[in-house]
Amino acid sequence: MSAETEQHLVLAVSTVIFSLRPDPETGELTLWLPLVRRIREPFKNRWALPGGPLDNAHDLAEAANNTMQHTTQVQPRHLEQLYAFGDVDRSPEAPERVVSIVYWALVGQDEDLQVVDAENVEWHPVEEIPGPLAFDHDLIVRYAVDRLRAKVTYSPIAHAFLPEEFSLADLRRVYEAILNRALDPSNFRRQILSQGTVQDTGRRMTGTAHRPPKLYRSAPQSSRYALTIEENP
Amino acid sequence: MSAETEQHLVLAVSTVIFSLRPDPETGELTLWLPLVRRIREPFKNRWALPGGPLDNAHDLAEAANNTMQHTTQVQPRHLEQLYAFGDVDRSPEAPERVVSIVYWALVGQDEDLQVVDAENVEWHPVEEIPGPLAFDHDLIVRYAVDRLRAKVTYSPIAHAFLPEEFSLADLRRVYEAILNRALDPSNFRRQILSQGTVQDTGRRMTGTAHRPPKLYRSAPQSSRYALTIEENP
DNA sequence: CCACTTCAGGTTGACTTGACCACAAGTAGC
DNA sequence: GCTACTTGTGGTCAAGTCAACCTGAAGTGG
């Protein structure tokens, strides 16, 4: 009994990696994520979240970080545990039971351009996921997007998408891409400045076809926890 | 390599079970939770969260539910995943690596009175944990309390501590016990009634030494997710 | 019948938020 | 060089939210 239990249970770590890219048609900034085409059963040839079995030598977050390296070859600007999925019947056709601990991550807006898309890895807009995905990964993606949208409203994680210096309009476009709705520039400015998460660099952007915006940088943040632990809706 | 990895990794499910009990000295309502005294190494004789290895036949939430049965012999009014803890060094003295998926639960204010305290199970106020606990359970308890306090402010889970019918003062005392601070009765009433999570039964409490309060019941809630999935601070 | 306690409901002022307006400061086209 | 255009910057105003506080309602106990 005990032997059978241990034998047929696999612990895996998967990661939902978010990046911002311009929509190829409209040119507007939208959320994208990388998917991996499975080359083995179960769910052979279906798209799945990047990840793999947990190596005994690594912490959970380290395993997620390694997945990021293999998939995007860049360091995440933000990495956070999402949820552990472990229902008995979540992979009915798999030979063993898989419990997945899922992380989600943000990579910088410019960094992912240098990514050499490895074989079987493809980026997709979150609104156009080529489903159904393997396992319960559709549910996981939907939940990760919900978490990201919720978190952006009470935490300065959106900065992670931007380079060192940025204008408030840049930041606003990130928020608009994540929340998928337009924000009033004036109100957005007031809100961001009041919460003290950005610092004025004193410099302005140059070469714009209009009034040059001030440049800001992220203020150093005080984290309450040593771990990055987060909450559910 | 692979064999060693599988062999030395154990997946466990633990549960932080909250109940409200009067403080034995002041008589005020406070948060309590059950701890189990370990009878084996590692951390022998130290207090730990109830739980155990994951049985291959059960979902994660089912495993947490079973832990509740063994520990408190009552059904939880609320059960929700907290976090997965899996650092390599979280149990340095243990022979194998343990990854714990931790749930937290609420049991009704009256129900836990009928609990037959099993051997090695003892309830403790969350502010007087007999630490240090086994493994990283001190950290887990602290995080679970934080999650509960955060969640009570935007979700009607506090109702879970109360019987079918209750007065707004009852509900307010639950909030005060969880948040550990006094709330203005008048503002609390307005806030609760405006969010529509309670229904007026039309009846009033009797036998009080003052104006009899109206009795309310919880309104049926609409959950966004089939699973109970939650968010982190 | 009066004192006391708690419930119930209303008022007020500080603060937040969204909608909107006006000006600032650059480029592009003529 | 002038004007149109675009986008950043800053302010106003009204609606809504929230904490502090006040007053009366309705019961029990002396």
Automatic annotation (TrEMBL), chains A, B:
Top-rank lineage group of the source organism: Bacteria
Domain NrtR DNA-binding winged helix per the UniProt entry, residue ranges: 161-217
Coiled-coil spans in chain: none
Residue ranges, annotated region (Disordered): 199-221
Domain Nudix hydrolase: from-to ranges: 35-140
Pfam (any one): NUDIX
Cross-referenced SUPFAM superfamilies: Nudix, Winged helix' DNA-binding domain
Classification via PANTHER family: ADP-RIBOSE PYROPHOSPHATASE, SLR1690 PROTEIN
Protein name (Swiss-Prot/TrEMBL): NUDIX domain-containing protein
The organism of origin for this protein: Nesterenkonia sphaerica
